[in-house]
Amino acid sequence: MSYVIDYINENEFRKLERALKKYNMPAFKKLAFEYYPNLREGNFIGNIILSDNNITKYELKLPNEKEFGYVHGDVNLIYTVYEKEKVVMLEEITPKDFWLESTEKKDELRSYKGVMLSK
Prior knowledge:
The chain is an alpha+beta fold. It has four helices and seven strands, in the order E-H-H-E-E-H-E-E-H-E-E.
């Protein structure tokens, strides 16, 4: 039972993924090499936020470096599963404002001892 991974807004989600890869590599590796294949196979992980008929919305906490978590909070993937259509719809990676802020600037975010600093 293979599921198709799709995006609500692919351009924005790809920006979020690139920022995650740049600033939190352990979370990106886990997402790309473990969680995405599990989602394609139908193994849905994370906390259920909303469940209605054949639609279920999940929030999956990604692994985080301790210092990054103290400063910016938990990194979560929010996705929705449509059982009937066999589609996993990727919605966003939170904290969304931090990830988008880091991609919109021409210069890179400054860091102190591996922790990114934003205004």
